């Protein structure tokens, strides 16, 4: 891999058990030149002690308050030294050494903007990890809680017919595993700190697209993503508020003003539906 160094950046919040699995898998399957940087967002579990006692070679940044996903990742970037950056969720787990294939692919195709990989659920079925850019239509369906009732309405947005066996250019990848060259990351403006959580990776993909840096899905690398472990600790209404805030930031930044206003007008109805959902304890993911 031409002596490139890779910085693996992990933002963690109260998922010590999953982070332990993630780090163990990295040390087991990564044979290239790399460093690991963990940013702890004010966890109340044993995350900090785990890193200090079991993984002393990991660079640890401890935040006194939760800085959110984007800002914490940028903290990691500021402390990193790699030529390439790998943003990895703490609840991911390598199952083999195929991450090296993705790294080799990106180093051999440096015109690419960013690379995502095949994300698997805990049972190793394909996880939806490729999407179209958000549209007014797709977000109306989401706000009105129609995804669970009529799954076909957002079939195009969620790329339900996507061929996960084929490496190809895509619009957007999820933030669980993102590989990007440092110079590209700096050139397009880094993750936007205005996003606390959600939409920050979509915003990044959008800006890469605007600057003619293609985003690719790489089929030959597979990792497990146990999925939303941090957010299971947050009440449904609070999760919805975080999602809505980021959605509005994205639409104000990238979409016509009238689309932004339509979404704002629908927020009271969305919160009513979310409250009903919370009362009924409906845990299906709707966004």
Automatic annotation (TrEMBL):
CDD domains tied to this protein: GT_2_like_c
Q: Which UniProt keywords apply?
A: Membrane, Transmembrane, Transmembrane helix
Could you tell me the superkingdom of the organism this chain comes from? Bacteria
Tell me which residues make up the Glycosyltransferase 2-like domain: 7-188
- Sequence intervals crossing the membrane: 257-276
Pfam families per the UniProt record, alphabetical = Glycos_transf_2
What protein name does the entry list?
A: Glycosyltransferase 2-like domain-containing protein
Name the source organism: Candidatus Komeilibacteria bacterium CG_4_10_14_0_8_um_filter_37_78
Q: What is the lineage of its organism?
A: Bacteria, Candidatus Komeiliibacteriota
